[in-house]
Amino acid sequence: MAHTIGEAARLARCSVPTIRYYEEMGLIPKLDRRPNGRRAVPDEVVRHIALIRTLRDSGFDLRHAGAIAEKVSTRNYTCEDLSSTLQAEADQLRVRIHALRKLESRLRSLADNCMSDCGERQAGDCQNLAATT
């Protein structure tokens, strides 16, 4: 069954401009037009769009999400392949979270040292700031 672009957006939980953008970027196939000139979005394309959105919401960049969705849609990706890809992304996320936690700790320590040593003085006079960079 083919849907209007508005129906497809609602079903895929995205916006109409997102579908147009995906079409323009080649993430989904060029959509056929109905006699009235409106796009006709087949069910399989709606599923493809929804998968891209889910992957984007899960942290994948648009290019990578589109590539995975293409493999899934063309049945060139097993559940094991997808699971491995998702696990690898989760592992990379864990590394980024660790780095962000270290950065957060450094910033909080810097802020605490600045307040304890500088108090009301001007930030430009803070020796801690200069010593930690």
**Spatial gap, N to C terminus:** 61 Å
| Spans of at least 5 consecutive residues with low confidence | none
Query: Helix content range of the residues, please?
Result: 55-70%
Whole-number mean pLDDT:
87
- State which percent range the strand residues make up: 5-15%
Order of helices and strands: EHHEEHHHH
User: DSSP helix count?
Assistant: 6
In short:
The chain has 133 residues and is mainly alpha-helical. Helix content is 68%, strand content 6%.
Describe this structure in words.
With 133 residues, this protein is mainly alpha-helical. The chain has two domains: 1-77, Multidrug-efflux Transporter Regulator, Chain: A, Domain 2; 85-133. The chain has helices at 5-12, 16-25, 43-57, 62-73, 79-118, 127-132; strands at 2-3, 32-33, 39-42. A three-stranded antiparallel beta sheet has the order 1-3-2. A hairpin with a 5-residue loop joins strand 2 (32-33) and strand 3. Helix 1 crosses helix 3 (43-57) and helix 3 crosses helix 4. The longest helix has 40 residues, at 79-118. The radius of gyration is 24 Å and the shape is elongated. The N and C termini lie far apart (61 Å). The model has no long low-confidence stretch (mean pLDDT 87).
What order do the helices and strands come in, and which of them pair?
Layout: E1 2-3, H1 5-12, H2 16-25, E2 32-33, E3 39-42, H3 43-57, H4 62-73, H5 79-118, H6 127-132
Antiparallel strand pairs: 1-3, 2-3
Highlighted features:
single chain, 133 residues, mainly alpha, Multidrug-efflux Transporter Regulator, Chain: A, Domain 2, elongated
